[in-house]
Design a protein that fits this description.
The chain folds into two domains: about 160 residues, Quinone Oxidoreductase, Chain A, domain 1, CATH 3.90.180.10; about 140 residues, NAD(P)-binding Rossmann-like Domain (Rossmann fold), CATH 3.40.50. The radius of gyration is 20 Å and the shape is globular. The mean pLDDT is about 95. Strands 3, 5, 6, 10, 11, 18 and 19 form a seven-stranded mixed beta sheet that branches. The chain has a six-stranded parallel beta sheet with strand order 14-13-12-15-16-17, with helices on both faces. The chain has a three-stranded antiparallel beta sheet with strand order 2-1-4, with no helix packed on it. The chain is α/β, with parallel strands linked by helices and about 350 residues long. α4 links the parallel β12 and β13.
Length: about 350
Amino acid sequence: MRALTVIPGRKHSLALTEMPEPEPSPGDLIVDALAVGVCGTDKEIAEAEYGTAPPMADRLVIGHESLGRVREAPDGSGFAPGDLVVGVVRRPDPVPCGACAIGRFDECRNGGYVERGIKQLDGYASEVWTVEPEYAVKLDPGLERVGMLMEPTSVVAKAWDQIDKVGGRSWFEPKRVLVTGAGPIGLLAALIGVQRGLEVHVLDLVAEGPKPELVTALGAVYHHEGIEAVVKEGEPDIVIEATGATSLVADAVAATGSFGVVCLTGVSPEGRNVNVDVGALNREMVLENDAIVGSVNANLGHYATAAEVLREADPGWLGRMITRRVPLEHFDQAFDLGPEHVKAVIELERS
C-alpha cells in the first residue's frame, strides 16, 4: 500500500512510501481509507518541528484527520463492513495519570500519551489502516465527502465544553460570541455557536472569497476591519481565539464583557513580543470576573459530540469548507495553500 510518511526531525523528508498493509491486532477493525485532512500540525511535522516515529521505525505515517470505510469488523465490535468511520487520535498513557484513568486523556498530566500520526503511532494517511473499535467513531453515511472534518470538529467541541464548564461556575446565559480566525477551527467553532442559537461574529483578515461567504451562509456576521470595530457593536460574552496571532490574542482577552470567557485554541509562535498593559488587563479580569482557558485535543465524548454536530450541519456548507482536494500522488499540493483557501484534503481511496 501507499502511505504518506516523514522521517521525524528531518526537513524535506515528506514522501509517498510503499509499505506493507498493517497487521491488525486481535479485535481491530481493518479500514480502507477514503481521505485525510491536512492541518497546521501536519505541516509542522513535515517541517521537522516535532513528531516521533513508532518504536523501532525510522518513518512516521502522518495524518490524524481520518476518514475510511470498514473492510473487516469482528463480531460484537459494534461495526460492520461498509460503515463510514474515523479513528481517534490520542491514546492514554499505558500507566495512566488521573485524567487518563477517567477517560480524559485529552488532558493527560504526565505527557505519556501517544497520538496517531504525531507521536509514536502511525497515522491515517495510508490506503489501509487498522483501529481498535473503542477508538473508532461511526459516521452518518451522508458525510462520506466531508467526514474527515470530524477530528477538527472534536477539537472545537472540546473548546465549547471547556467554555460551558468555566461559565457554569456561576449564572451563564451567553448571547454573543466572537470567533477570531476563519480557518477550519474558527468556522467549525462558528457552526457550533449558530447551532446553539447564539449571535455569532467571525473576524478574519481577508475581505472576499470563501471565508466571508461561508460565514454569511451560516447566518453569522463576518468582519475584517479589526477587533475594535467588532467590539464597538457590542461586547461578546465569549471569545474563541483560533489564530494564535500574538497581538490578536491580547486583544481577544480584553474584548469580552463582564463575566466573559475567552477560549484560546490557536497556538502562538514563540519569540514574538507585543506591548500589553498587564495592569489594565489584570484589573479588568479581576473586577469583571473574566476567565481565560486554553483548549487542545479531544476525548471520546467530544468525538461523539462532533459526530452529532456534523450530522446536523448542512453537508453542502461543510463541503464548501474543503477548497482543495488532491489525489495521494499530488500530496504536496495540500501542503501549499494560499490565503484564498480554507481546507485541503488528500484523497486516498484506491481506484
